[in-house]
Amino acid sequence: MIRVPEKKHTPLILSVDGVTKSFDGFRAINDLNFYLEEGELRTVIGPNGAGKSTFMDLITARTKPDAGRIVFHKDNGEDVDLTRVREHDVSQLGIGRKFQNPTVYRSHTVYDNLKLSLSGQRTLLSSLFYRESSEDREKIHDVLKTVRLSEFEACLAGSLSHGQKQWLEIGMLLAQDPKIMLVDEPAAGMSDEETERTGELLLSLEGKHSLIVIEHDMEFVRQIARRVTVLHQGHVLKEGGFSFVKNDPKVIEVYLGRQTRTH
Amino acid sequence: MGMSIFDSKREKAGFFIALVILVFFIPLLNAVGSEGSVFHVSAFQLSLWGKYITYAVLAMSLNLLWGYTGLLCLCQSLFFALGAYAFGMYLMLHVGVDSVYNTALPDFMDFQGYTELPFYWAPFESASFAALAVFLVPGFVAFVFGYLAFSSRIKGVYFSILTQALTYALMLLFFKNNLELFGRSFILFGGNNGLTDFKQIMGADVNAEATQRWLFIASSLLMLGVYLLIAWVITTKFGKVQQAIRDSENRVRFSGYSTTSYKMLIFVASAMIAGVAGALYVPQVGGINANEMTPAKSLDVVVWVALGGRGTKFGPILGAIVVSLIKSYTTRAYPDSWLIILGMIFIFVVLFMPNGLVGLPRQLKPWLNRLKSRRSKVVEASNPSVS
What we know:
heterodimer; A: 263 residues; alpha/beta; six-stranded mixed β-sheet; 10 strands; B: 387 residues; mainly alpha; two-stranded antiparallel ribbon; 14 helices; 6 strands; globular
């Protein structure tokens, strides 16, 4: 099982307590409580407008909550209030985010995309005088292998297929050595085969990183699901194993039912 | 991996050939040889090309922002003009004692009855102060403006519009003779006429051929130096971050880089480079006025970079010189149509030459190949007996 660092007072890595966020009177997030354990792979599902993207924006300090606390539990036992951290410092803490649309640096090679994402100094001077070390190179090659892009390292990222771009972006997160990875709809727009490979990739990261995966595609959720959180109107509707959640009448009503009807 | 700031041996050789030609041959051909000889470079040509070289540096400074970072700045000529004014003020204070008014003050101060220099003009008597102001003043303006714009996440077209408003506002200010503030009147920088009629630069006659020669050499060295600087920066991780900001700023920020500070440094550095170019422009052209701050001047620079090839090292230089040559021809031959021609060049480049002149050979290659293969097919078809 997952090893919790000794200094930590909790097996959790992230606690979201009673968070509320409104936009122009609309409550996107309403008294949300969410707890993520060290090394856990959590899938978050919910109908459109359930507040999934706002939830991610809150964790990455892109937006600040109106009420409530979002706490990141560091390995050394320290608790960091994420509502007081600047956006570009969030990744330094060890929280990486993959956007819904693949965002890679198209005019750089796959290798350079990963190089820019490696954890380390980010100041102006350090990047002017940065020299690539052999550890850096090794780390980049490890990540390339994990996301199965080794043969494309010299290609421009702009020339990759949609699925490869999604993997590259996951690789860019991995290069940062994140504690928590937020992955927004990784399978969107992928072929069945690519979707399956993405599922394998995410499952292989379980335990080494804590993951929150937001997803729409129920087939994909079935493949990767451990614990599933169902969001509805900015609130946690249900939480549990995939079949438990899937068979819950309330969940069927707000989400799954709606989806079977449209299909 | 042998890291070199040059991409190829050809580029390296070209750089050193340019260095020798610009810094030794052209000045030498100006110094020796008689008027009218084929090998003589006239004083007129020398300062004309000196001016083009300062334009090339201005274009390179915009390319650093627009080409490599994706920030379309529409006030690059403002920074150029600020550097030019800063150095022009120094030159203005070394025009000697006026025979009519018997003061060493610039004429426009005499006209208004000033008998001594205002406190904000006085330090510019010193050449070293002026030399610092040449890049610190544009740098400061860029710092303040950049801080406000970047920290409030103003991007894309909104950033461009704001920079245009900035140059327009300062142009209006520089066109004024006096600024009324707190019930007092402050004399500004020569109003409509700007600063002109310079006499001396560091003790030498500013219009002497030897002085102009040195100014040409200095401009060439500046251009080559800026070229090296940019060539180096784009090989570093800093340069890669810069281009990554152009591709996807959100991703860069989520990777933990403070994109605001990266953009700030690039913006300030680019303003400083433009300022130094402006300072070298002034003594070669013989004056500076607020016309150089009109938004149209900054748009010119955008056309130079677009035509030459943005995001390339050599493109801005080529674009600045080609457009300036076309301009100097058309303003003589068809004085009224220059702006129309400039507009047409821009539209043509945007529609048909996304990589500018520098990218043209590569763009035309498939087309030429097709043409060649079609021609050989036609030849084969017309002589079936040959095969």
